[in-house]
């Protein structure tokens, strides 16, 4: 089984080392990890006029060629997960294949959003949190926007939320390993 | 043709009015707009134990029943678009149907991310922007993470970026209308 390794890990200074470590853990569980920056012959990507579009096409081809997706959903430069990762999560869910994810931040999405919106957020007449522009906050006790938690649940996946030391925010892979174990069990039952 | 109206518009204080206005514009172009909060009989959603999960399942069912998606990609509480909207964009792209989007913020994603990361971001030895934790920024001159711009391009869609007065950030629908026109043309050529 090929597992697409979605996440902002591609932006890490040691992205290649992270790719190697995730692939090693996949192999331990009898799976093959596919990192977004892995080379992949793809006629459309090879012919793309722009580097960024070649990257897009190659990532899409990687996802289509994988059997499942495990996403690093640790909040990235805001209350939510990395946008590219979220796009890929929705993409794989629509293909009907298993999606799982982990976040190295256990905080509630509402609490995290309130930290981002700052003191101008307030409760409206109905008692709901709204930001300075009047837009409502989600208050469901979830890890992120309900489409993320919901997509993983609909796929019978696992969404791990755990606290890690701040310095291990981008390196701790216990949640990732828990996803691999859950994926193994899911496939065994499937 | 049914068009799914993705966006953080659902969080607006006047979300119902926005839904009505977007549907009116769709009708002008011979299309039927479907807003995420529209009622929809769905056995799984009706049986869901949690409100948030019922919402998820209903949104997914709406998307599957639509022929195209137009997303409000205006940056939402951070450098990127709303996470739920991005998930839905990837979902619809994977279904192989047209996706288009508009942003009422013309700024480059890199510039916007630099505003979010603050003065701790710096150029590394290779000349690339990295944040305080050493994670790289995308520098492609795009509207958002390359998966968003790329998905729309791969679908032959349109991504409108335009400046609007700050007070019209969540109400200006010129970009939305441009998407509807582009979608009409796309279908005419299809």
Automatic annotation (TrEMBL), chains A, B:
Domain of life per record: Bacteria
SUPFAM superfamilies for the chain: N-(deoxy)ribosyltransferase-like
Record InterPro entries: 2'-dNMP_N-hydrolase (IPR051239), Nucleoside_deoxyribTrfase (IPR007710)
A Pfam family hit: Nuc_deoxyrib_tr
Gene3D superfamilies in the record: 3.40.50.450
Record-linked PANTHER family: 2'-DEOXYNUCLEOSIDE 5'-PHOSPHATE N-HYDROLASE 1
Name of protein: Nucleoside 2-deoxyribosyltransferase
Lineage: Bacteria, Pseudomonadati, Pseudomonadota, Alphaproteobacteria, Acetobacterales
């Amino acid at each position: 089984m090929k597992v697409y390794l979605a996440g902002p890990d591609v932006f890490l200074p040691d992205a290649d080392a992270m790719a190697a470590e995730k692939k090693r853990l996949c192999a331990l569980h009898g799976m093959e990890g596919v990192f977004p920056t892995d080379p992949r012959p793809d006629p459309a990507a090879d012919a793309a006029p722009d580097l960024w579009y070649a990257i897009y096409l190659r990532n899409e081809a990687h996802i289509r060629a994988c059997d499942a997706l495990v996403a690093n959903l640790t909040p990235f430069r805001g209350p939510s997960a990395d946008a590219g990762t979220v796009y890929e999560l929705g993409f794989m869910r629509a293909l009907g294949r298993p999606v799982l994810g982990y976040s190295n931040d256990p905080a509630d999405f509402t609490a995290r959003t309130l930290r981002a919106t700052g003191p101008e957020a307030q409760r409206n007449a109905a008692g709901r949190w709204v930001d300075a522009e009047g837009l409502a906050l989600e208050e469901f006790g979830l890890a992120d926007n309900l489409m993320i938690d919901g997509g993983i649940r609909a796929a019978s996946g696992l969404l791990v939320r755990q606290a890690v030391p701040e310095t291990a925010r981008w390196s701790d892979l216990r949640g990732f390993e828990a996803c691999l174990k859950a994926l193994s069990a899911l496939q065994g039952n499937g």
